[in-house]
Amino acid sequence: xxxxxxxxxxxxxxxxxxxxxxxxxxxxxxxxxxxxxxxxxxxxxxxxxxxxxxxxxxxxxxxxxxxxxxxxxxxxxxxxxxxxxxxxxxxxxxxxxxxxxxxxxxxxxxxxxxxxxxxxxxxxxxxxxxxxxxxxxxxxxxxxxxxxxxxxxxxxxxxxxxxxxxxxxxxxxxxxxxxxxxxxxxxxxxxxxxxxxxxxxxxxxxxxxxxxxxxxxxxxxxxxxxxxxxxxxxxxxxxxxxxxxxxxxxxxxxxxxxxxxxxxxxxxxxxxxxxxxxxxxxxxxxxxxxxxxxxxxxxxxxxxxxxxxxxxx
Length: 313
What we know:
single chain, Rossmann fold
């Protein structure tokens, strides 16, 4: 195969990869916005914007902005703007997807500080145009991804979607580390190229999309279980409230003297002690006790004591 044929083949292959990547990315972004609209889960929204920022990075590297005659100064500004968008969407997506508010609530403020430092270096590079600042910016951005990847590793066994998150983020993290950082120092672990980055990005999109869907499915299942538990608890509370209300009504049916006798019964007083306390005969006490048992539908003192306990609760 001649050199021209090889070049033509490589060009066609590159165009195929580009078309496939941008097509799939566009569809996944649309689906993410659609799922956000229906499920109101912020993870879908942040996922969409994360994919937009990643795809825009590839658009810049592919030279599409040059093809559209965008001047170099504007391209540099858009690259820096994309760093801010990529960092911010990574932060928000990681917080939301990994449920950091639940598992690591204190970590969020540190990742926010790291994001603000990234914004600071974006501003410094935009003003000073010093190459070392750009290298530091790449390191900080990858450090932010590394933090969320490590948090995902810590939560690896929590559920299946966290496992997919760890695998998908590893692709961006290590390929980005090789291409954007190590190559600046003349080192390369994986010989990463823009084409390899795009293929890795495509794999990440697929894995991360499944992770987001699995997460939504698991959360909906969990919410369904929680709603059933709440319903059962509410039903039990309502039942107890009705029972306590009926007991109160039954006690209200007692006469004033019977209520006094009832209180003495639950105080473990004997018939003789009750007779002495209210200054009536023992036979009169027995008469009142019998009426109390009939009105409350109980048979003995133990059941009377149980009624008193239920009312107190």
